[in-house]
Amino acid sequence: MPKIVDHVQRRDEIAHVACQVVAHYGFEQATVARIARGAGYTTGMVAHYYESKQDIILAALRLTLLRIEQRLTRERENSEANLLAVLSETLAIDKQRFTESAFWMAFWGQVSADKNLKRLNVWVHREYMRLYARCFAEHWREWSVWPLSVRDQVLRSVVTCINGLTASAVTSPGDWPAAKQVEQLQLQLDLLHQWASRGAGRGSRSK
């Protein structure tokens, strides 16, 4: 009886390995041959599922973003989980998240020179904003009554903070252990909450 091949699973395996290879070797050195070898397949097998290296990278991006979304939105045993605990899921606080962060950094390093990657980065940024907005709406009661401009500023600041923390953790891991990353994110959230509350209060009084 012929072996049943799960083609979706195989595509995901290749994409997952691509993420690891890019994180370890960098974008340029992450060749299709190296990705195939890491996945235990021939280059011909990989070519059967992906037409080019860019297609593999796109699949890896989508897979990584999906995993981040699952971590941000999953049901937690502790229903009282706060916003800090949720958003910390995106930091480079363990091996898997460190690999994801290194992968994102390698991708960002190519964006400025590639129009297709620029468009892809716009989509990625929009998805992050959507995910973080959902987290804020679920964990900050005041979120829904704050003006749209205030919420937008908070989201942009948080994205910038998390990007900076993950980049620092990848480039200087000894200086940025998990606890320090979480501490800095907590500080940013506290400051943003104070700023947004004051801004929303001034806005309501001026009406």
The name of the CATH superfamily of the largest domain reads: Tetracycline Repressor, domain 2
Choose one word for the global shape: elongated
Number-wise, the strands total: 0
CATH architecture type of the largest domain: Orthogonal Bundle
Percentage of residues in helical conformation: over 70%
List strands and helices in order, with pairings:
Blueprint: H1 7-25, H2 32-39, H3 43-49, H4 53-73, H5 83-87, H6 95-111, H7 115-139, H8 148-171, H9 178-205
Helix pairs in contact: 1-2, 1-4, 1-6, 4-7, 6-7, 6-8, 7-8, 8-9
Describe the protein.
- The chain is an all-alpha fold and 207 residues long.
- It has 2 domains: 66 residues, Homeodomain-like (Arc Repressor Mutant, subunit A), CATH 1.10.10.60; 133 residues, Tetracycline Repressor, domain 2 (Orthogonal Bundle), CATH 1.10.357.
- It is 74% helix and 0% strand.
- The chain contains 9 helices and no strands.
- The longest helix is centred in the last third of the chain and has 28 residues.
- The radius of gyration is 20 Å and the shape is elongated.
- The termini are far apart.
- The model has no long low-confidence stretch (mean pLDDT 88).
Summarize the structure.
This protein is an all-alpha fold and 207 residues long. It has nine helices and no strands.
Which structural traits does this protein have?
207 residues; mainly alpha; Arc Repressor Mutant, subunit A; Tetracycline Repressor, domain 2
